[in-house]
Amino acid sequence: MADVVESEGRKIVVAVDDGEESIFALQWCLRNFVSSSATTSSPRDTLVLVYARPSPPVYAAMDGTAIMFSAEITASLDKYSRDLADSIMDRAQKICKDYNVKVDVKVTLGDAREVLCGTVERIKADVLVMGSHGYGFIKRALIGSVSDYCSKNAECPVLIVKRPAT
Q1: Helix or strand run (H / E) with residue 102
Q2: How far apart are the C-alpha atoms of 78 and 134, rounded to whole Å?
Q3: What are 50's strand-pairing partners?
Q4: Residue 3 in contact with residue 135, Cβ under 8 Å?
Q5: pTM, whole model, 2 decimals?
Q6: Tens of pLDDT along 102-121?
Q7: Is the separation of the CB atoms in 101 and 30 below 8 Å?
Q8: 156 contacts 25 by C-beta, under 8 angstroms
Q9: Residue ranges in the chain assigned as alpha helix (H)
Q10: Which candidate, 136, 132, 164, 135, places its Cα nearest to that of 151?
Q11: What is the pLDDT of residues 44-96, one digit of tens each?
């Protein structure tokens, strides 16, 4: 009898941030893509939770703003950013605990668009799941849409989960 070779599971990337939209997308993904913990087999799929910490602003010494941002203030802002990332990832991991899935956490410094597209390319993800803030045309045109960018540039299918209006 031939040995059965178990295929590698899916790599599902989920974009998380401090918004309720990303938490809703994570919960939707778990309910619809992942088995609950009731199954006895070991998890095959890997859920990669990705959070993009904004890069700290860089101020030129010539314009006077550098004086306002001393080393202590800059360190304090960086600590706040790291603490926020830890809090977001802790919350996301707690949501995942009741599901039969391996969880990998990636917190990266940079623009969310580039971080997400870079991550799915680097790990060869099967799908990118992300929430939608539901911005209108004008706001999307002014500030851009991470989900819009990723849907056009990611090297895998992108699933944008819209949170129902309450």
Answers
A1: strand 102-109
A2: 29
A3: 15, 106
A4: no
A5: 0.80
A6: 999 999 999 999 999 999 99
A7: yes
A8: no
A9: 20-33, 65-68, 71-96, 112-123, 137-143, 146-153
A10: 132
A11: 889 999 999 987 766 555 555 555 556 777 778 888 889 899 999 999 999 99
Provide the residue count of the chain: 166
What per-residue confidence (pLDDT) applies to 34?
Answer: 81
Domains and CATH numbers, the chain: 11-162 (3.40.50.620)
Q: How much helix, strand and coil, in percent to the nearest 5, is found in the chain?
A: 45, 20, 35
Which of 85, 154, 151, 163 lies closest to 120 in space, CA to CA?
A: 154
Compute the distance between CA of residue 152 and CA of residue 158 in angstroms, rounded to an integer.
9
Sheet holding 11-15, edge to edge: 102-109, 46-53, 11-15, 127-132, 158-162
Retrieve residue 162's tokens.
């819209």
